[in-house]
Structures are given as C-alpha cells and as structure tokens.
Amino acid sequence: MTDKLKPLRDKIDAIDAQLLSLLNERAKVAQEVGHVKAETNAPVFRPEREAQVLRGVAERNPGPLAGTDVQTIFREIMSACRALEKRVTVAYLGPSGTFSEQAVYRQFGQAVDGLPCASIDEVFRATEAGTAEFGVVPVENSSEGAINRTLDLLLQTPLAISGEVAIAVHHSLMTKTGTMDGVTVICAHSQALAQCQVWLNDHYPQIERRAVASNAEAARLASQDASVAAIASEIAGGQYQLGVVHGHIQDDPHNRTRFAIVGKLQPGPSGNDRTSIVLAVPNKAGAVYQLLAPLAQHGVSMTRFESRPARTGTWEYYFYVDVEGHAQNPAVARALAELKSNAAFFKVLGSYPTSLY
Ligand SMILES: C=C(O[C@@H]1C=C(C(=O)O)C=C[C@H]1O)C(=O)O
C-alpha cells in the first residue's frame, strides 16, 4: 500500500509546487492590475470580469473535476488576488452564520471583510455611507416570495444592484442536547418558520413557535437554554455547538433565496446580464398591459414581475421588473427608453451579471 501511494503522492507534491508557483505568478499580475487601477481611481472589484472568468473556466473545464467545483476554486483564487489589490468590506444581514453571510462568500470568496448588520435597513445605510463598499440583501425566496423591506429600500436608495447570488436554503432543527427532551419553544426567523410550517405541523404541532430577529439569533438562544430549539442552517448551528435533531426540514426541498449585491458600482456588460427596474403607471384601464408592450416589441425577455402597493397614495402599485440583458445592450436600451416615456415613475435599479448558481 505505502509502496503504491508514495510515487502518486510524489506526483501530487510536484504538481502542487507548480500550482503554487503559478498562483503566485497570477497574484503578481493582479497586483499590477491594482497599481493601474490606483492611478485612475478605478474600482478594484469588477463583477463583470469575475463572472466572465468563472463562466470561462467552467466552459473550458476538461474534467474530471465538476464545473461548479472548478468555479468554487477560481472564485477563491480571484478573491485572494483581489485582496492583494484591496480588501473589500461587505455589509450583510447578520449576525454571523446567516444565509446572507453565505451569500457574501459565494459572491466575493473568503478574502473579504464581512460587516454584520442588525437589519436590512442598516445594510443599506452602511453601504450608502461608505462604511462598506457593498451590501448583500435578500430579494426573494422561492417558497415565500419577495422580501418586501428590500423592495421598499431599493426604491429609495441611490445605490445600484451590481450582482445577484442564489443560495440553497436548507433548515435544520437543532438544540443544545441534540434531542427534543424538555423543549418548550421553537425559535427562528419568521421566514424560516413559514418555510417549515407543514413539517412543524406534522412533527411538533404542540410546541410553541416564536419568531426572532434571525435564525442565527435563534441558534444563539438555543445554545444558552436547553428548552429552546432553533431552526437555522447547520453552519449557524455549528457556530453555537448545537446538535442536529432533524436536518432538511424545509417544506420545499428546492428552497432557495436570491440575494442582491448593492453598491455604488455600476458594472459593464459581461455577456450574460440582467437588468432590474421599478416602474409605476397611472391608475387607468389597460395601463399595465400597455406598460410592458415595449419589452415584447424589442424582443426583451422578462424574467420577473413583482408588484408592491405604493404607500404615497399617488399611484396604485410599483412594479419590479427584471429583464434579460444589460441596459447598454441596444435592444434593452430602446425598450427601457419606451418604458420610461410611458411610466409615471421609472428607475433602473442596475444591470449586473446573471447569477452562476
Ligand atoms: C485582476 C483584476 O481585479 C479583480 C480581480 C480579478 C481576478 O483575480 O481575476 C478579476 C476582477 C477584479 O475583481 C481585474 O480587474 O482584472
């Protein structure tokens, strides 16, 4: 056994030596890029370029490594190279251990400084004030729909959406002891309680459910009190040394949350982009139908349509619309110009590379 392993491990050692030297060669070039950017005050993080690199490696990947695994590796290589230029600070809905934090690392890699915030409002404020260069906020969940607070804040903010990332949301029921003995209350964020309600009705209909500020907060409470069970990610549970009673308890096995990256940056086209807009129409018959007609006329696909009641009383609803393509794409630009001319309110929230996941 040892005789057979030794030459193979020697081979791996030799390949690792080459990888190490190539990685550092790459890092030095990234440092040079950093110097060029510093001269012109250009932004360090370029999501459109990173999206192109990640799509490129998956397309060219000969295997046997899976394309998504190759992307994860390159995401970290770019994150480390970027950090040599400058470390990026990213605000997110904390505390540590939330799905929002996972979204930060999925988008930026590990070489970032995360800034946990107490609320979605605070994520926007920290990013608007420049305390963080970017903020990561949840936009919609595949089971529960839109995150209304985020939609309302997107309407007002001067920030632009510069990226999106989708995270698989798997919930676990966890306690300090790893059993349900003596548990009198199940704590979680209201969204998580809603996403697990059928399962909870089946398994623990008698136990009180309590909504708390975040799933990570629920995990923290459970770590201090054996009568509290938490619904959270296993990552959050691990941070508080909780034992898993049941895993994957979300009602929809494909439960996902989509997050938006907000910041002052407006990325250029990456070749596979999405544009998010908000608009409102005067309250009259056929207005919504007419509003969207320019998209079809210019061959622009709509990928999302969401409405929110306008609370100003002036218009009935705000419509949040996502379309395929960058706002600099001529067909998209023409469609947007027409939408704008028909709308009582119109705002481009941003154009950004489509999520890889
Ligand atoms: C090196 C650059 O800066 C950053 C790092 C990148 C990388 O390591 O490939 C890509 C884009 C930027 O976020 C660049 O802009 O090319």
What would a concise description of this structure say?
The protein is α/β, with parallel strands linked by helices and about 350 residues long. About 45% of the residues lie in helices and about 25% in strands.
Question: What can you see in these coordinates?
Answer:
It is a single chain. This protein is α/β, with parallel strands linked by helices. It folds into 3 domains: 43-169 and 255-267, D-Maltodextrin-Binding Protein, domain 2, CATH 3.40.190.10; 172-246, 3-Layer(aba) Sandwich (D-Maltodextrin-Binding Protein, domain 2); 273-351, Alpha-Beta Plaits (2-Layer Sandwich). Helix content is 43%, strand content 25%. It has 12 helices and 15 strands. The chain has helices at residues 2-40, 47-60, 67-85, 99-108, 120-129, 148-156, 190-195, 197-203, 215-224, 234-239, 287-297, 330-342, and strands spanning 89-93, 113-117, 134-141, 145-146, 160-168, 172-175, 185-188, 208-211, 228-232, 243-246, 256-263, 273-280, 302-309, 317-324, 345-353. Strands 1, 2, 3, 4, 5 and 11 form a 6-stranded mixed sheet that branches. A 5-stranded mixed sheet has the order 8-7-9-6-10. A 4-stranded antiparallel sheet has the order 13-14-12-15, with helices on both faces. Helix 11 (287-297) packs antiparallel against helix 12. The protein is globular. The two termini are 40 Å apart. The model has no long low-confidence stretch (mean pLDDT 94). The protein binds the ligand C=C(O[C@@H]1C=C(C(=O)O)C=C[C@H]1O)C(=O)O. The ligand C=C(O[C@@H]1C=C(C(=O)O)C=C[C@H]1O)C(=O)O binds next to helix 1, helix 2 and helix 3.
